[in-house]
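Backbone-to-sequence.
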């Protein structure tokens, strides 16, 4: 359906800005990506490997190919969002992902699994993530940082509920039944909800961005009509994109093999599931703190803080010896993830504007998805070669520190700087 078609579905006139409804749908859609990212696949990794008789390195190689191919969906989906609007794109992607997950629950061999994991990566981790983030960026400008903090909290609460529930389903009924239930929920719950409630932009239903005229303290775009090419020529794009990508590499590698990582340290699977819940619980705290921080300071500061916390969490993971250590490390990972979410979700719209946001966000997301493909393979080869994960975490912590230094020195577009650093408006 074109944007003109969307205009025949006006939003209810109410005091509540309709962008908050769209934000809620976008956050639920991001929770719906669960079968796509490596962390979601990690919920079924061990029973799937045992069921299909697949080795750990072979599975990591499959994951690499699937994620690299799936990342292509990021670029294409951004163009569709910018041209067609999010409502139809979101509904179609949710339906497609649900069908793929249902079919994946019946996978019987390596080849079929490769095809299906590739499609879950493409529709879930890539396409659905880009649509969800772009939805919020299209509806908010002056209040984008606050909106992304609220979005991150809703999303984190959703994942906090979804991870242990799906994990419990896997333990109780097997990975196939759990995956079938997830697919049915995507097709018969999330997709209809998206069609009923989403609207592609404020202008499509006669509203203004943020629900009114920008105030005198509204952030100003460095390049309000920046194209993808403009963004790619900006050093800040690469620092923020690479920092988010390294976080994706770390999160995907640990997420896929976290049960094995903790088993090496002497912990049972139940501790792994509890750690997932703790990470999801800590992330909203990071979202709130980062949102307040970003409103008062540069997004640069949010990113640097995220990277410092992440480096500390990685170094700690190599040394955990008690359940309390595991949970403390999970808290640090969750807070770091909450900071990264706010920085990644907010930066593109504030720095480069709304005109080509889908393409710009898609390019950044593609880098993150490709990096997430490397994480599991890196850890799989490392443990295969050395017999332990520990040293790998110190190497990754060093890379994160280097990126933190780069984030300190790179020039930041004015729209992503604190208001006090911007020149006054002409009167």
């Amino acid at each position: 359906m074109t944007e003109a078609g969307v205009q025949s579905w006006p939003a209810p006139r109410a005091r509540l800005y309709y962008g908050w409804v769209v934000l809620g749908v976008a956050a639920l859609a991001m929770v719906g990506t669960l079968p796509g990212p490596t962390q979601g696949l990690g919920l079924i990794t061990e029973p799937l490997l045992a069921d299909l008789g697949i080795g750990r390195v072979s599975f990591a190689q499959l994951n690499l190919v699937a994620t690299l191919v799936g990342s292509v969906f990021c670029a294409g989906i951004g163009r569709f969002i910018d041209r067609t609007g999010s409502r139809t794109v979101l509904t179609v992607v949710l339906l497609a992902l649900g069908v793929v997950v249902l079919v994946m629950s019946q996978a019987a061999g390596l080849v079929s699994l490769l095809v299906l994991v590739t499609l879950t990566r493409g529709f879930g981790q890539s396409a659905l993530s880009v649509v969800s983030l772009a939805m919020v960026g299209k509806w908010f400008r002056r209040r984008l940082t606050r909106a992304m903090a609220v979005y991150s909290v809703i999303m984190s609460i959703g994942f906090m509920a979804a991870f242990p529930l799906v994990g419990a389903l896997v333990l109780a009924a097997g990975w196939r039944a759990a995956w079938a239930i997830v697919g049915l929920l995507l097709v018969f719950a999330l997709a209809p909800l998206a069609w009923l409630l989403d609207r592609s932009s404020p202008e499509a239903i006669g509203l203004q961005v943020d629900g009114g005229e920008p105030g005198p303290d509204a952030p100003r775009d460095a390049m309000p009509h920046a194209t993808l090419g403009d963004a790619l020529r900006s050093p800040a794009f690469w620092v923020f994109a690479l920092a988010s990508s390294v976080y994706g590499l770390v999160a995907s590698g640990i997420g896929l093999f976290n049960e094995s990582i903790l088993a090496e340290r002497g912990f049972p699977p139940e501790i792994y599931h509890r750690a997932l819940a703790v990470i999801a619980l800590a992330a909203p705290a990071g979202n709130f703190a980062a949102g307040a921080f970003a409103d008062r300071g540069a997004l640069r500061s949010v990113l640097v803080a995220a990277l410092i916390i992440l480096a500390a969490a990685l170094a700690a993971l190599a040394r955990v010896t008690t359940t309390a250590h595991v949970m403390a490390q999970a808290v640090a990972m969750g807070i770091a993830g909450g900071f990264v979410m706010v920085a990644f979700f907010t930066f593109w719209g504030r720095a480069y504007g709304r005109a080509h946001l889908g393409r710009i966000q898609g390019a950044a997301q593609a880098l993150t998805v490709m990096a997430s493909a490397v994480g599991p393979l890196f850890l799989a080869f490392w443990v295969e070669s050395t017999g332990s994960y520990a040293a790998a975490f110190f190497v990754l912590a060093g890379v994160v520190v280097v990126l933190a230094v780069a984030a300190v020195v790179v020039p930041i577009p004015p729209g992503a700087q604190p208001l006090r650093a911007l020149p006054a408006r002409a009167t």
